[in-house]
Input
Amino acid sequence: MPSGEGQPLLSQLNIRYSREVMGNSDRQSLRSVSSDTSEVAKELRKNLYRTRSSIVAQVGVITFLLYIFYHIMINDIIFFTGHPALNTFAVFALTQSIILVQPTSTAAEKQLGATVHGIFNLISGSAFLGALSIIFINKAAHQGVHFKSAHARLGLVTYVLLLANVLLGITQYWTPYVYGSVNRAKSLYKFHRVIGYVSLGFSFLTIAVSTATGYNKNIFGLKFTVLTGLIIITSIGLVIRIRPQKFQFKFRLS
Ligand code: HEM
Output
């Protein structure tokens, strides 16, 4: 596991900051800290949209978002519209949170990356929660049956995976002692990564399968082939960026 993940990041940054403060005048130190931060931010921005693979992923996911929002705009806006709108926006924000940290290398990049990753996920999680509330209120209004369609069941699995991963990510980073030690918490980061990719995959799949719902067939009009094409483009960009060494699973043969 590379050094500097999780809590130790905070202390590494503090040491670096203190050295600079001790060696220079306050103003110079502040300037060097802020130029350090802007260098780190520059690297993270590069992750988001300045490499070829990130451009491929962004073209895929932005077109995906625009395609669904086009269908939202050409149809009547009703209470239920919030369900596809918020879910699609949530998947978009989740994709951004993943591209951003794919990968980070220095300790400072990891720390800033983790903070912005958390902010994106907070936005994404709130949108997912809003979308789930809307479908529940909507179903309650006409005594609809829960989790009957393939879309509804896949959606449920997606929400459970997302919730599990949010809890894992937050506790690993902010309260590593619940796993016994910081190192033990760090050794579990690979599970957060795997569940992250799996839950994003399920999110895309759930949206693709929503094309089979009566509402989509009769009113909304999303095309399965268009969605699948855009999901494939996004996935190509994302998969190229995966660093296999970040998934060091140890298997015991005996
Ligand atoms: C990742 C994105 C999405 C997730 C996680 C998701 C999740 C869900 C869940 C869990 C239900 C069932 C709730 C219940 O049975 O109580 C549901 C229902 C529904 N969703 Fe989605 N949804 C997503 C995106 C969309 C999109 C983009 C559409 C647009 C067509 C859509 C259309 C519907 C419809 C029409 C229903 C009601 C019919 C049914 O229960 O199958 N959903 N969704």
